C-alpha cells in the first residue's frame, strides 16, 4: 500500500456562507479496501468532531480509481484525423453551448504517459449541465474514420491542471529529449521541447531545439516593454534582455515528478525494512538466513537504489538548457 495524508483548505464555490472548508484528504493506491470508504469517512468525521475541536471534512481518494487526467504531446498520426473533423465539432459545440465551452484541442491523455492515447479534450465553464454521453456520441459520429478518437469533457481551464510526473519518460542519464516539459525561468508551467536543430547564421552555428511561441515567450512577471518587444519583434540581439533562460523541467512538473517517485518508493522501503528486521532477528538467534530471504533483500535494495538515484538526479532541477535565440509569434522559437 502507498498512502498519504494531506490537510488542505479548499474552495466551495456556489455555497452560501463560508465558501472555504478544511479537508483531511486520504490518498492511497495499490490496495484492495476491505470496507466501503463511505462508512470509514463518516467515522473519521465523528472522531475529529467529537469535542468540536476540529471542524474538518474527510475525503478518501483511491488514486487508481479516480479520474486524474494528465495531458501530453500529441502523436503525428492522430493530427490528420483530428483536423478532418475539427471544424464540424466546433460548429456542434457552438450550437450546443454557445459561450459555455472554452477550448477544444487534441492531447494524449491518461494518468500515465506510457498508457496515454490521443484524445479530443473539450473544456467547459464550471456548472455547465448537459447530456454528456449523448454529446460524446454525436461528436464521435462526426469522425469519418474507422479508428475514432475518444472525447473527454473537463470543467474549468487548463491552467488549473497540476504538473506531470516525468519519470516514465526520463532517460537514466537525465539528458533532455523530445517531449520533455520546459519553460522560461520565472514561470511554473510551459510546454514541450521540440526537435533538436543546428542553425547557421553567417559564420556562426547554434545547436538548439524548436518549441512553441508560448513556451518561451516572456514570463508573466516580465516588464511590459520586454513582453511587448518579444511579441512584436521577436528577440535577436545578443545583449537583449528578452533573451530568456529556458529551464527543464517546468517547476510544477518537477514537483510532481519528485512526489510521484517518493510515493513509488514508500511501499518497497517498508517491505525492505521488514526484511532487514527479519534478517536481524535471525542473526541474533544464530539462525541461518534462507536463500530466498537474502535474494528478496537484494532485489528490493537494487530497486530502491535505482529510484533514489533518479530522485537525486531530479532534486537539483530545474536546470538551464539554453537561451531564446529567435522568437516569432506566428512561427517558432529557437533556443541555443
Note the overall shape: globular
Uncertain runs are 330-336
Encode the helix/strand succession as letters: EEHEEHEEHEEEEEHHEHHEE
Question: How many separate helices?
Answer: 7
Number of beta strands? 14
Helix content: 25-40%
Rg? 25 Å
- Structural class computed from helices and strand pairing: alpha+beta
Number of domains: 3
* Biggest sheet details: 7 strands, antiparallel
| Mean model confidence by pLDDT | 78
Q: Which key phrases capture this entry?
A:
3 domains; 336 residues; alpha+beta; GMP Synthetase, Chain A, domain 3; 7 helices; 7-stranded antiparallel beta sheet; 4-stranded mixed beta sheet; 26% strand
Describe the protein's architecture and organization.
This protein is α+β, with helices and mostly antiparallel strands. The chain folds into three domains: 2-65, no CATH class; 70-160, GMP Synthetase, Chain A, domain 3; 163-336, no CATH class. Helices cover 35% and strands 26% of the residues. The protein has helices spanning 37-48, 76-97, 132-141, 213-216, 224-233, 251-284, 291-314, and strands at residues 2-11, 20-29, 57-62, 70-72, 101-110, 117-124, 151-155, 181-184, 191-192, 196-201, 204-211, 245-248, 319-327, 333-335. Strands 9-8-12-13-14-11-10 form a seven-stranded antiparallel β-sheet. Strands 4-5-6-7 form a four-stranded mixed β-sheet. A three-stranded mixed β-sheet has the order 1-2-3. The longest helix has 34 residues, at 251-284. Residues 330-336 have low confidence and may be disordered.
Amino acid at each position: 500500500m502507498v498512502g498519504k495524508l494531506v490537510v488542505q483548505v479548499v474552495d466551495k464555490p456556489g455555497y452560501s456562507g463560508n465558501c472555504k472548508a478544511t479537508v483531511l484528504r486520504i490518498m492511497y493506491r495499490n490496495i484492495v479496501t476491505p470496507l466501503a470508504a463511505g462508512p470509514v469517512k463518516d467515522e473519521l468525521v465523528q472522531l475529529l468532531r467529537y469535542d468540536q475541536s476540529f471542524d474538518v471534512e474527510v475525503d478518501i481518494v483511491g488514486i487508481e480509481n479516480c479520474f486524474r487526467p494528465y495531458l501530453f504531446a500529441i502523436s503525428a498520426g492522430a493530427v490528420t484525423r483530428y483536423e478532418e473533423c475539427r471544424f464540424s465539432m466546433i460548429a456542434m459545440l457552438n450550437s450546443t453551448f454557445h459561450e459555455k465551452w472554452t477550448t477544444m484541442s487534441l492531447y494524449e491523455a491518461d494518468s500515465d504517459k506510457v498508457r496515454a492515447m490521443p484524445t479530443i479534450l473539450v473544456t467547459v465553464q464550471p456548472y455547465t449541465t448537459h447530456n454528456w454521453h449523448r454529446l460524446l456520441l454525436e461528436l464521435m459520429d462526426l469522425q469519418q474514420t474507422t479508428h475514432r478518437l475518444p472525447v473527454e469533457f473537463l470543467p474549468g481551464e487548463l491552467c488549473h491542471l497540476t504538473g506531470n510526473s516525468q519519470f516514465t519518460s526520463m532517460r537514466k542519464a537525465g539528458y533532455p529529449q523530445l517531449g520533455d516539459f520546459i519553460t522560461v525561468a520565472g514561470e511554473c508551467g510551459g510546454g514541450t521541447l521540440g526537435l533538436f536543430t543546428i542553425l547557421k547564421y553567417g559564420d556562426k552555428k547554434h545547436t538548439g531545439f524548436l518549441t512553441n511561441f508560448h513556451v518561451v515567450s516572456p514570463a508573466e512577471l516580465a516588464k511590459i516593454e520586454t513582453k511587448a518587444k518579444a511579441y512584436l519583434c521577436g528577440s535577436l540581439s545578443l545583449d537583449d534582455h528578452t533573451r530568456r533562460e529556458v529551464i527543464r523541467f517546468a517547476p510544477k512538473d518537477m514537483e510532481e515528478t519528485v512526489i510521484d517517485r517518493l510515493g513509488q518508493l514508500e511501499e518497497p522501503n517498508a517491505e525492505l525494512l521488514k526484511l532487514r528486521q527479519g534478517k536481524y532477528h535471525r542473526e541474533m538467534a544464530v539462525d541461518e538466513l534462507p536463500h530466498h530471504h537474502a535474494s528478496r533483500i537484494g532485489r528490493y535494495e537494487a530497486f530502491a537504489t535505482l529510484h533514489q538515484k533518479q530522485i537525486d538526479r531530479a532534486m537539483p532541477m530545474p536546470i538551464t538548457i539554453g537561451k531564446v535565440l529567435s522568437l516569432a509569434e506566428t512561427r517558432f522559437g529557437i533556443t541555443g
